[in-house]
Every structure is written in C-alpha cells, then in structure tokens.
Amino acid sequence: MSLQEVWQSFLDIIYPRDIRCPICGVKRDDMLSWGVCQSCQSRLPFIEPPICPKCGRMMLIDNRLCLDCQQANHAFYKGISIFEFSTEVKGLIHRYKYRGEKHLSIPMIHWMMEGLKVYRWDFDIIVPVPLHPSRERQRGFNQAKILAQGLSKNTDIPLDSKSLIRVKNTPHQTKLNRQERKRNLQYAFRVKETDGKLKVFQDKVILLVDDVYTTGSTADQCSRVLLDSGASKVYLITLATGANF
Ligand SMILES: [Zn+2]
Ligand SMILES: [Zn+2]
Which of 65, 111, 187, 210 would be a feasible disulfide site paired with 129, CB 3.0-4.6 Å? Predict the structure, then answer.
C-alpha cells in the first residue's frame, strides 16, 4: 500500500465517504480514487497557463508578473493554487468549511498534491494558516490544518500546526477591500517562541497552506511573522484563487 492509500483508508474511517460523487451527488461508475467522478473532475476550473510565477493565479496575458504582484510586495516567495474561485469551487469550499463536510478534504488534498508534484519545491515544514482558537472551537476544525495534515502525510514532511498562532479574532474578510484586509490582519498572527535560544523556524523553508487566496493579505501577514521567526523562505499553496489580473 502506498502512503497515500494508507492515509486514504485512515480518512475513510474518520470521515466515511459516500459512494456518490460529492460534487454532482450521483452514484457513478467513473469514480476516481480520490472520490470524485471523472466528469466532475473534468469540469473543474483547474488553473492553466499563463500563470503568474509569483502568486500562481491565471493571467489574461503572459506577463512577467500579474498586475497585483507588480504592485504588491508579497512576503511569500512563491505561491500556487489549484483552481479558479468559480461558483462551483466556491460551493465546494463552503460545504467543506461551513457545513463541516470534512470528507471533501480527500479530493482537495489529492489536487493539492498534484500541484506540488508539478512544482517540486523543496521545503522543510508544512504550516497551516491558523484560525483564532475561538473561531476554531466554533467551527470544530481548522480547514487549512486538515489540508496541511494531508500534505504532510503524503510528502512525509513534518507538520507544525502549533507554532504559528492567530492572536486576533478578526471579523470575516469577505466584504473588505485590500486596505481594510491589511489593517484587519495587522498583528493578527504570531509565532509562539520557545524559551530557548533558536527561533522556531530558524533557516527553515516553509510551505504555508490555506484554502483560498484573494488579495494575499493573510498569506503576507503569516509569511512576515514566519520570516521574523527565522524562516528563510515561505512557499504558499492554496486550493483556489480569486479573479484574473
Ligand atoms: Zn460528479
Ligand atoms: Zn501574481
């Protein structure tokens, strides 16, 4: 059994999968091993070139960087995302995050793994974007942490979901513009330092994991504190990303 299969059968126990495709809801015989049917898989808006080499979103024309990255000085080194944030993908993430359909993490982890295989980045630790403890209690889980755990199991690269913490319980960002998001997130994250000598992430290359990339404010704020804590580089992977630039 491959590591992925072991992980999958483990997930099957905690989050039993329906034999129906979780996207179209139909019992089909073209189910793929990661639990969605072939026809849903082929309809999903996978990100395709031209892709911004900095943030990973699709560009309309093959520029050096997307318009956003030309202006923003993103703190992460490079990012990739798997899907465009279409209505369908938005729905899928919404079900996973707010309706607690944790079994959707199985295909999500699979798709993110495929993305990582293409880019072949070298990193030492996988770190999920944290939720504020009260938000995590309310939701019952951190959606980014489950994805990060899956990536860690599949790559055999250690997960650290404890050192980067969210200390400010910020309001939902959905309706905020870039400046408001930035302000909202200022000092929202911190790295829990141990009483010791070395910084927690000293000289480590980090893969930061989140579900959605919009303006990059969250990724930037997390990356800044990780870099302050000694990280040498922060890569970013998200499941979906916002509009074209
Ligand atoms: Zn389907
Ligand atoms: Zn970009």
Answer: 210
Neighbour order of strands in the sheet with 233-241:
78-84, 233-241, 205-213, 125-128
Query: Hey, what are 22's tokens?
Result: 């979780």
Using one digit for the tens of pLDDT, what is the confidence trace for 83-112? 999 999 999 999 999 999 999 999 999 999
- Provide the residue ranges of all domains of the chain, joining segments of one domain with +: 3-241
Ligand nearest to the CA of 54: 2
Q: What separation in Å is there between the alpha carbon of 27 and the centre of ligand 1?
A: 8
Instruction: Note the ligand closest to the C-alpha atom of 56.
Output: 2
Q: Residue 41 has which token pair?
A: 């898989």
Distance 43 CA to ligand 1 centre (A): 9
Structure tokens at 231: 């990280």
pTM over 0.70? The answer is yes
Interval 1-16 mean pLDDT? 64
123 and 158 in contact (C-beta within 8 Å)? Answer: no
Residue 32 CA to residue 37 CA, distance in Å, equals 6
With tokens 């707010």, the residue in question is 98
Q: Which CATH architecture has domain 3-241?
A: 3-Layer(aba) Sandwich (3.40)
How far is ligand 1, taken at its centre, from the CA of residue 37, in Å? 4
Q: How many whole angstroms from 113 Cα to the centroid of ligand 2?
A: 21
Does residue 107 have a cis peptide bond before it, meaning omega lies within 30 degrees of 0? no
Listed residues: CB within 5 A of ion ligand 2: 52, 54-55, 66, 69
Hey, what amino acid is at 195? D
Q: What angle do CA 142, 227, 214 make, to 5 degrees?
A: 50
